[in-house]
Amino acid sequence: MINSIEDNDWIFNIIEEKISNFLSELGPKLIRVALENLDVYILEDRNKSIYRCKGKREKTVNTSLGSVSYKRRLYEEKISRNEVRTVFLLDEILKLKFLGKSTLKQAINLVTEALAESFRNVSKQNDSPLLCNPSHQTVKNRVSDIANLFKNAETQRIQKYYKNELHGENQVEILFEEKDGLFLSIQGQKAKKEIKLAKVYEGWQLERESSKRYKTINPLYFAGYENPEQFDAIVNSGIAEVYDSDYLKTKILNGDGAEWISKEVEMDATVQYQLDLFHIYEKATRKIANSDDRNRIKKLIKNKEFEKLIDECKKLYENELDEKEKEKLREVYIYYSNFA
Q1: pLDDT value of residue 90
Q2: Best label site of 116, 125, 225, 286, fewest CB within 10 Å?
Q3: 115 and 122 in contact (C-beta within 8 Å)?
């Protein structure tokens, strides 16, 4: 008996594959049946004096379960004595909107894969009837479609923010915000472009009781290539959507000293700006070539001897003979003078 089972094709991986294939074939069929049955219900339940059936039309869409072809009825809707319009009531009632021929879920699946792979690789990985055979151009189009959906939602949120129509429910008195910039190479462009990044959170807490590691509380993340004013609108509208602005008293802003980061302080008196400690040290690490000078500057920072820090930076700058190094030290001197 044991030997006969071992020799049989019905081993576990075969069973798993056969059931998986069966369910994959069944999914699109169930979607088609559900849509067509609902279309029949609409036909019988419609107001016949307003909606006149003009026959069936077939539509094919790409879903996360595979390609689905279904038939739904086209209607002529009487709006007034002299005005009519054609409408698919099934699409209208279900608010069916597709990105190309893709459902939102299928489009998100492709975009998620495209985060880790090239468009062509995603196309190859989905090259089967079950996965709708998307071309690399289709994958690219879905990425653009999803990006536009987010962009439109973001634009609407900002408009509501300017009209004071966003009223978040979370009530905290203090929020922390970290801003930074990252220069990325953009396809088709010679110069790198800075993407602005922001993280907003309520504070810190231990990851678990026995841990020495901390995690931020309720973080929100934002990113964009917009100018500083537009990016601040993206961040602040996101905050207003989640938090009660009337209850919020202070936002503590951390950054590396870049002008676009600190500029928000000039526009909002509730924002308190403080230079990020990591970047304070990083400036010395990157710009001071001599290790002894570098360690001496870092020690002054650690001991919070800011007056000595400025004097020492000035001496390093004035005594440097190499023009390239002198320019770097000048940048260090100005940097610490502004924020010490």
Answers
A1: 95
A2: 116
A3: no
CB atoms within 10 A of CB 295: 12
pLDDT tens-place string over residues 141-151: 988 999 999 99
Strand 250-255 to 271-275 pairing: parallel
Spell out the domain ranges in the chain: 1-94, 97-165, 174-274, 279-339
Q: Given a cut of 70, is residue 3 above it in pLDDT? A: no
Backbone angles phi, psi at 266, to 5 degrees: -70, -25
Q: Is residue 68 within 8 Å of residue 85, measured between CB atoms? A: no
Which residues have a Cβ under 8 Å from the Cβ of 246 and sit 6 or more positions away?
A: none
Q: Rounded CA gap, 223 and 198, in Å?
A: 6
Read off the pLDDT band of 2 (50, 70, 90).
low
Q: Which amino acid is at 143?
A: V
Mean pLDDT of 107-117: 88
**What Å distances lie between residue 35 and 73, 129, 182, 298, CA to CA?**
11, 21, 47, 68
